[in-house]
Specification:
With about 350 residues, the protein is mainly β. It has one helix and 24 strands.
């Protein structure tokens, strides 16, 4: 799913493609899309909800945060992850009414659960809680956002991000980072070990592995190991002479961006090579031919059309996604969000 953030004089557009059998693409159709679909062209305009500042794509549902701090959701809702007080999937964006009195500043979507952070630093979660991933001290699922009381005396900036990193939910691969012992799951947040004194600036979680960046450009990872490497049960610093400024996790690989805040960096990948996922588990591999101005490129698994190339073939080299006539010239900025398929 792709969003264009633009100047006030320009129009905002959202395009979606890939797996859509649960309505997660927002097209009002229950089918996969192999080519990009412009949501603005729908009979009921997508942007009746207002300008979008952030999208979060889960297993088969989407959370959208508007510029005025409101939340709309759509897609699969069978675990209550949409936050509408029921367990029903929906095809069109719908406001989360229980959050209407709040100003939401950050949203995050898991496989079948969701999290919301307010401007006052409160965390709310809903959806599947089979492993305690909602953080309420039990394993009871909720279909409306419920405040996580553990953080009543703490200010949450972003979900799983701040001065201290906390983990809760499934931990069978060490992805919680709270103990060197094997932990199946925990239902209350616990501080991760191994990051004391480290200034955390960003964190990313996907499936059963995590990565975080420090203020001095160091990269830490924990959870399921890539390729033949062993699982790691606490944050481990990856020694490198490079300075990392951004990290993104896939299901079995990781992309890292080097450089400084002014740009000019390179992209490296770590992970396996299944479905064309590039990289070596022992060291990062430079991703070549990636940086072209306002060109979106995809590669890897394409079974559901998620590469946006008009087919379901896997791709082992980068392919430019057709964004429509003149799209790169009309917009000053393009942002891309990825769900599971």
């Amino acid at each position: 799913m792709e969003e264009s953030e633009i100047d006030k004089e320009e129009e905002e557009e959202i395009w979606s493609w890939g797996a859509g059998t649960d309505g997660q693409l927002g097209t009002t159709r229950l089918e996969d899309e192999q080519l990009l679909q412009l949501l603005l062209d729908l009979p009921s305009p997508f942007f009746s909800v207002g300008p979008i500042s952030l999208l979060a794509c889960g297993g088969a549902h989407v959370l959208a945060l508007t510029t005025d701090g409101k939340v709309v959701t759509w897609g699969r809702g069978t675990s209550g992850q949409l936050g509408h007080g029921d367990m029903v999937s929906i095809l069109k964006p719908k406001h989360v009414k229980s959050l209407e009195s709040l100003v939401i500043t950050h949203v995050s979507a898991g496989w079948s659960h969701s999290g919301f952070v307010s401007d006052t630093g409160c965390l709310f979660t809903c959806g599947d809680d089979s492993f305690g991933q909602l953080g309420h001290g039990d394993c009871n699922s909720h279909c409306s956002p419920l405040k996580v009381s553990y953080f009543d005396s703490k200010h949450v900036d972003q979900i799983a991000c701040g001065d201290t990193v906390y983990g809760f939910g499934s931990g069978k691969r060490g992805q919680l980072g709270v103990s060197m012992d094997n932990i199946i799951s925990i239902s209350l947040p616990q501080a991760t070990v191994g990051l004391k004194g480290v200034e955390i600036v960003s964190i990313d979680a996907n499936g059963d592995h995590n990565a975080t960046l420090s203020g001095d450009g160091h990269l830490y990872t924990w959870g399921r190991g890539f390729g033949s490497t062993s699982d790691v049960h606490y944050p481990r610093h990856l020694p490198s002479s490079l300075c990392f400024i951004q990290v993104a996790l896939g299901w079995n690989h990781m992309l890292v961006l080097t450089g400084d805040m002014l740009g000019g960096g390179e992209v490296f990948m770590l992970g396996g090579n299944h479905h064309g996922v590039l990289g070596n588990p022992q060291k990062g591999s430079l991703v070549k031919h990636l940086c072209e101005n306002k060109v979106v490129k995809t590669w890897g698994w394409g079974e559901h059309g998620q590469l946006g190339l008009g087919s379901t073939y896997d791709q082992i080299i980068l392919q430019a996604v057709p964004l429509g006539n003149g799209l790169p010239r009309r917009h000053s900025m393009i942002k891309v969000y990825c769900g599971r398929n």
